[in-house]
Amino acid sequence: MLIVMNHNAGKKQIEAIIKAVERMGFAAAPIPGSERTAIGVLGNKGYVDDSTVLALPGVKEVIHVSKPYKLVSRDFHPRNTIVKVAGIEIGSGKRPVIMAGPCAVESEDQIMKTARAVKASGADMLRGGAFKPRTGPHTFQGMREEGLKLLSLASRESGLPFVTEVMSPDTVDMVAEYADVLQVGARNMQNFELLRELGKIKKPILLKRGMSATIEEFLAAAEYILAEGNPGVILCERGIRTFETATRNTLDLAVIPLIKEMSHLPIMVDPSHATGRRSLVPPMAKAALVAGADGLMLEVHPDPEKALSDGPQSLTLQGFDKLMKELELLISFLGS
Amino acid sequence: MLIVMNHNAGKKQIEAIIKAVERMGFAAAPIPGSERTAIGVLGNKGYVDDSTVLALPGVKEVIHVSKPYKLVSRDFHPRNTIVKVAGIEIGSGKRPVIMAGPCAVESEDQIMKTARAVKASGADMLRGGAFKPRTGPHTFQGMREEGLKLLSLASRESGLPFVTEVMSPDTVDMVAEYADVLQVGARNMQNFELLRELGKIKKPILLKRGMSATIEEFLAAAEYILAEGNPGVILCERGIRTFETATRNTLDLAVIPLIKEMSHLPIMVDPSHATGRRSLVPPMAKAALVAGADGLMLEVHPDPEKALSDGPQSLTLQGFDKLMKELELLISFLGS
Amino acid sequence: MLIVMNHNAGKKQIEAIIKAVERMGFAAAPIPGSERTAIGVLGNKGYVDDSTVLALPGVKEVIHVSKPYKLVSRDFHPRNTIVKVAGIEIGSGKRPVIMAGPCAVESEDQIMKTARAVKASGADMLRGGAFKPRTGPHTFQGMREEGLKLLSLASRESGLPFVTEVMSPDTVDMVAEYADVLQVGARNMQNFELLRELGKIKKPILLKRGMSATIEEFLAAAEYILAEGNPGVILCERGIRTFETATRNTLDLAVIPLIKEMSHLPIMVDPSHATGRRSLVPPMAKAALVAGADGLMLEVHPDPEKALSDGPQSLTLQGFDKLMKELELLISFLGS
Amino acid sequence: MLIVMNHNAGKKQIEAIIKAVERMGFAAAPIPGSERTAIGVLGNKGYVDDSTVLALPGVKEVIHVSKPYKLVSRDFHPRNTIVKVAGIEIGSGKRPVIMAGPCAVESEDQIMKTARAVKASGADMLRGGAFKPRTGPHTFQGMREEGLKLLSLASRESGLPFVTEVMSPDTVDMVAEYADVLQVGARNMQNFELLRELGKIKKPILLKRGMSATIEEFLAAAEYILAEGNPGVILCERGIRTFETATRNTLDLAVIPLIKEMSHLPIMVDPSHATGRRSLVPPMAKAALVAGADGLMLEVHPDPEKALSDGPQSLTLQGFDKLMKELELLISFLGS
Lengths: 336, 336, 336, 336
Known about the structure:
The structure is a homotetramer.
Chain A: E1 2-5, H1 11-23, E2 27-32, E3 37-42, H2 51-54, E4 59-63, E5 83-85, E6 88-90, E7 97-101, H3 108-121, E8 125-127, H4 145-158, E9 162-165, H5 172-178, E10 181-184, H6 192-199, E11 205-208, H7 215-227, E12 233-237, H8 255-262, E13 267-269, H9 271-275, H10 281-290, E14 295-299, H11 317-335
Parallel strand pairs in A: 7-8, 7-14, 8-9, 9-10, 10-11, 11-12, 12-13
Antiparallel strand pairs in A: 1-3, 1-4, 2-3, 5-6
Helix pairs in contact in A: 3-4, 3-11, 6-7, 10-11
């Protein structure tokens, strides 16, 4: 931690800072500059709350060298974490994992049809929402437990493990009973009570980046899950909110290689939610793989025109099949 | 709803749209333009999911005239909602309500001292966090139920009703047992399971705007609470996330008069979280009142240097007392 | 400047940094931490380009204590700059200055009528655009020199000095011949060739904040003008671009007190462009004054329905007159 | 254009709108809805200024179906524009063009060395800045005309045509005398006087997207150049400004396929400025090509540690050579 003093901070103020730092149990090293003095804080074992210091007279700003996460950092865990789901390895660096399915489970027919089709096209996992977070209360909110049962059925029949969203701490156990991977949606990335609950179970968690979450906040959210004892976290970039409204969100692909530098956790990409437009999904899916993503999450619907949610960004079964053929070629190229 | 067709959309595509709209139970009115055709959708009673239509060939975009909320809209409820808390009226347009207290309850001494002091300075309500959402898991997370008990004690002794944050559906009942107003923090604005649960209780809810929530999403979140039967929602602007990092957030004061046009719900401002800097709190507090805010939420700490969270943005007891004297003059001026 | 090393940076890398810093003519002070080492750079007289250091192996990040501006900083010039325009003082802290007029000069009748009316209502200066920056080339681009002549005429007749925008270095002299204050629009805040040219003239410059300019960039843009010898810069907040689209921009009022802390330059507010909605202009105008703004820039049009640009955010003559009466009361209150 | 009326707008207000629209020379078609009325505007030949209408009583909002650009739209020019530079074709869809070189020309030795090296590695064009836009005035601002001469020399010797930035209308002729392609930087994307001047010359223009420019504004800026008679515009995505500060900007790759849908102009990507970090340039360069970019602009410096600007994001000569080998394989794969 570095404490930067005001231009005109006097000797007394600097001494007060040094004492305050020492009272916190750390050592203080003043660095006089030509314009102002800075004070280095030594001996801290992790992130330090800077409130005490920031409130003292003469302090201009406090700069953190340590971060609000540690367990997820590659600094302390240099090897990639590989998350295993029913024999599939996510994060091994060998082969990206493809999760595909509808935004929401709508009926047995819809989910069975989709599961069979995406399996035939080469998907590794099934996705589908039973609990749906929607902007307003007057639209379809998901089939809830009934949806989980249909997902299980489709999973068993197709042989594909499945991932589905969980929205509150009290439904974690219920969802965990059915799902192979539990997803935390973007709106819940900082629902800390939910994250803590997910840290106590044994199943892998797919954590989506919040709409306006910095990478530091994203990793700190994952830290909540690891801190409770669950090491199986898969990160997922799904676009961030910016001033641009031509796409639903702005897909931030540079976080893929950047998070690979900062953390050992696997990271996937959801180009469907990121772009919100079907025509942009295939190019962004490919770009994500080339950027190093450990997997893709793709929305596929047998009849997007009639989808109860996110129809415009869902691929048709044919569209998904075509994309998978192209992805296979790309994966072969990247692996060669 | 208006459906805008592609430049080169042909007659067949337009007819397919009209049929699709009719299948949805609405009427379709084509508006031929010099460059492209648009199709108006008539007869919808509220927000329509546009997925079906967007997915049809030839459609360029869909424009919504209706909104994802209705109960919170001033269109359908022209008179101001006045939320009553222990005899205090919020949203009456008469006198803004001042809620003050520490970011987090830290000890009996701290909260009692603060409660007495803010009462003496003229505050109407006490605020204080027992459950604290923090970026990372390694910092102080609040005293939880113990904190609620201390808040109750401080409330009884000072005679000030209190507001405190609730973070998960399963703690709603517990928090409601103690608190006069339950607060939903910015990170939980779209925690829909929590909102639904809060819609079922009889106590007022203070709903903070999410860091990157549009006004439409903010109002739609309030709609969740009203839709479950709880009409007592107080909105609170607390700054949004932008590219500017010199302040903690960007305080968006224009939403005050704008939300007053759009909704009948009261709206307050939290200049402490919005700016993150003690020196900016007084000018922004005054600006908020002049802009029409129904109240202020202010962080006050007897010893901000030692605060476990948000010290740099907390006013001292003296600072709060000075500000209250200035606010009193301003309130008199505005009321005259 | 502080250089933060990677977790695993070795002794050799640290020594290489120290040498590189010394080669730049500065002294280096290593600060060993429990997790990583940081190196303080001492002796720099201002902002240092960090490229050289950032490119060396082992460096995690470089943190600047110095800033890219100096002349505009209050650190080095503690007293407020007061800009004088035809006997009016801007930035004196005594009385805010009101500049009012149409977005664009459209005709002699329009500008004369407006000038007379805003003068009668109590405005201090006239505003009006002769050169108009517009998103696309197919809309009205301003009357150019003809517009300057009409502004001069209106200024002489009303007795109000006027401010108008200049868009390119080669028209600076022409605009300076007519105008009392030259305005740099938000889109040109980093048009450095224009800023340099404006630094060479003797007339005051009103510099609007860029749509996505940080405060640091805003002050650094002003520094360009001061560095060329022109000390008369008036800053103007006009809203920033964020994800929120319900208002034209997001008015960032917290910058008013913040810039007052950081710089000695006067700062005004333009609530018309910031909000883009007539109904929001009066509350935001008042909030700006309460926040400490040195003045307001307001769009007024005798017939907003027929305005060639920005009609929806322009006040009518009656609306402006009413607002001025309210502002007078507020100014008296603030001054008392 | 669609005019949406307020919920409670009466018959008289609607009739006033219809008359106003007819006065503008268009036809008006009212569309009564269950909640409110909307009025379609027919017969407009392009973008209509909505000020007049928005200012009328009862109007809630105005929705544009037409856009502020036309010449750059694919609607009216379905075939790709191919920009030719010294025998190289940009936008043909056959082979992406690689432009490489230092951020700024610093010396004859530096630019000659770089030109030879990037040519040897397979670059198609040389890039280098002679006029440098910098945040503050106290850092290196470029070698200006001397830099242009060195670029010419390096271009002649290496056989690579070159692109360089132009910052003001009065230097357009000078820069055009030397350069093969003239670049407009992000800060000048809406420097309309500069754009107009560039529309009058015969050389191709590389237009970078502004830091906070929407796609619509980006295309409308290009429209300024085409409207003056110069059809040779190459667009360039270089990252946008968002809340995320871990990367210099947020690279918005989804605009590549999206702009291809909307416009016939070629579009390139600059991963160096977008990310600001050398390690992220190769993965983003590859992702850009996979997303369909017509070319890449890459910063390369023989000694990035000593670069006067943008060192941390510059590739070394070896790094560029390695990347080119990987890009060649990818280009072959994509072309197969």
